[in-house]
Amino acid sequence: MVRITGVAAVTDETFAAEVLSAEGPVLVDFTADWCPPCRQMVPVLAEIAREEAHRLTVVSLDVDHNPQTQAAYGVLSMPTLMVFRGGEPVKSVIGARAKARLLRELDDVL
User: Fold this and answer.
1) Is 31 one of the annotated active-site residues of the chain?
2) Over the stretch 12-37, which tens digit does the pLDDT of each residue have?
3) 3-state SS assignment for residue 95
């Protein structure tokens, strides 16, 4: 599993507590080891986790090891980045992005 510095890994078992019950917005990176664009997102997400920690929590979910959560949210392509707020998905983007573009796309939900 690809580990991202400053980004917690969540599982099917911890998703509800870590994401759905979180106080503020949570960006979930649905990822897989075999996915090159997912690996491209590692430094981007690490920077966002560090720089936006005051307003956003970033977590990662390996879809190969956590199929229930993947299926529950209809995630078919990796990487899928989904923002949850108040236990509900409020924004979803698919594919690798540059940091500036991703932050622009997420700005309305942060």
Assistant:
1) no
2) 999 999 999 999 999 999 999 999 99
3) coil
With a CB cutoff of 8 Å and minimum separation 6, the contacts of 83 are 25, 26, 27, 28, 56, 89, 90, 91, 92, 106, 109, 110
In this structure, what token pair is assigned to residue 58? 């970033």
Q: Describe the strand order of the beta sheet including 57-62 as a list of residue ranges.
A: 8-9, 57-62, 26-31, 80-85, 88-94
pTM of the model: 0.95
Residue 15 to residue 49: CA distance in whole angstroms: 18
β partners of residue 31 = 62
* Catalytic residue of the set 7, 10, 27, 38: 38
Mean pLDDT across the chain: 94
**Quick check: is 38 catalytic?**
yes
